[in-house]
Design brief:
DNA-binding; 3-stranded antiparallel sheet; homodimer; mainly alpha; 2 domains; Arc Repressor Mutant, subunit A; 71% helix; globular; Four Helix Bundle (Hemerythrin (Met), subunit A); 9 helices
DNA sequence: GTCATAATACTTGTATACAAGTATACTTGA
DNA sequence: TCAAGTATACTTGTATACAAGTATTATGAC
């Protein structure tokens, strides 16, 4: 796969991925980071040439991105949708919706195993910080939330997560890369937030959970703003 | 498209649909109705032969069904998943989750247009009942809920709906076909429920909304049970 | 210059071909 | 009879070919 631009999606996350998955992951990152401007038109042939693959994997990738609301498939070409403040807020809404649902299930369960698993993931996050690896950190961060959601064994709620995950992953990845450069001490707070979240689950403390959840959201929210400003820096002036 | 079985999905809903969409819709109906037993293995070549199309649309259809949790794509072949009581309950959960979210948004808005639209749809449902057309009725029933969800202009909540819709549509379709034959007077109650729902939106009455919502769910829930029993009748004895 | 029409260069959806990998069945040796 | 290895018939993922449709551009009549 050789194109005009460098690849921004971590290659190590694409071990056994098909060409279609690779293209989808890469395009997603470029769209969310603003490297591909909203309103752009993507055509299958053009992308196939750019990524040096055939149309088959490209079609697959476009279907995926359309299901994530990042592009809209039209008669001729796919248009890149804008990731507005409203969009970010909507993702926030959905996360709040499913994570509170999940928590209501958690308080009715024994979560000893879950807490142990989360603690492990948190330790990994700390290591990632220590070695200044934003990609590893993001991976563990996403995994943290996925572990919680998966734990209640609700396949439809998990489906909603699966749809949301790629976008969220890209957002977190992009913002963490910036933070590792610019706001390194933010991570103390992020770690403490996650500790609070674990504690909330362990003690089945609703108030604590909602509090840490909101703070966690604010983290991403804040990061997104960083992302926008940073993006303006490297892409071009604002309109 | 010629196969061994009759097609159960309404052809008139497939006007401009691609071959992939047709196959997906038909397979979905057969899986949910139990015509294709859970645990069966589907292969692309076999399906391509059965539907007299190439593998391309089949691949597309399988991806769609996998995203709806109706099949699981494995290394070799796709296995048909079971639609258990638990699954039905989960769909119920998600509907409750998004429709209550939607209602919270509705109480902050002016819904005159929406109420008018819903009334129109309800009139159509009555006509469908009068002319004993379960397919038309199901279409309007699904449209009724889609109209409500769409009205708040929340693209991510709508995405969740879009994922849920095909399964729900199939469930409603199958159960309504049975009811039109066996329990014709159920429809009085269903219509009254929808009237209550409209009233709840119009008066922004949370309690009324929750009440009618639950009754509406119970309708589908009940229908599903009908579906299972009826299915046992025509497919084969229970294990 | 302007409008209508025709030619061209796109587009998508589907069919087919091929390569690489995996399970099944079958042989072969003891 | 059974184990090990090989052949065969599957499987998926990708590339390519083709048909039908749509936008754009060029052409020509007025």
């Amino acid at each position: 796969m050789a194109g005009t631009n460098e690849y921004v999606y971590p290659e190590k996350w694409l071990n056994k991925a098909s060409a279609g998955d690779r293209v989808a992951s890469e395009l997603r990152m470029r769209i969310i980071s603003g490297q591909i401007e909203s309103g752009s038109k993507l055509s299958e042939n053009q992308l196939a040439a750019e990524f040096s693959v055939s149309r088959s994997p490209i079609r697959e990738a476009l279907k995926v991105l359309a299901s994530e609301n990042l592009i809209r498939l039209e008669r001729m070409g796919a248009v890149v949708l804008e990731l507005t403040e409203k969009e970010i807020q909507e993702i926030y809404d959905v996360r709040l919706l499913i994570e509170t649902f999940v928590f209501e299930r958690l308080v009715k369960k024994d979560n000893q195993e879950l807490v142990k698993e989360l603690s492990k993931t948190l330790e990994m996050m700390k290591i990632a910080i220590k070695y200044k690896d934003p990609d590893d950190f993001s991976f563990q961060d996403v995994l943290f939330h996925e572990t919680i959601i998966r734990s209640i064994g609700h396949s439809h709620i998990f489906m909603i997560w699966k749809n949301l995950k790629p976008t969220l992953e890209s957002l977190i990845l992009l913002s963490m890369r910036i933070r590792f450069k610019e706001k390194y001490d933010d991570f103390d707070r992020i770690i403490r937030n996650h500790e609070l979240y674990i504690e909330a689950i362990d003690k089945k403390d609703r108030d604590l959970m909602v509090k840490s959840l909101h703070q966690n959201f604010d983290d991403v929210q804040g990061s997104v703003e960083d992302l926008w400003t940073s993006q303006q820096t490297f892409s071009k002036g604002v309109e």
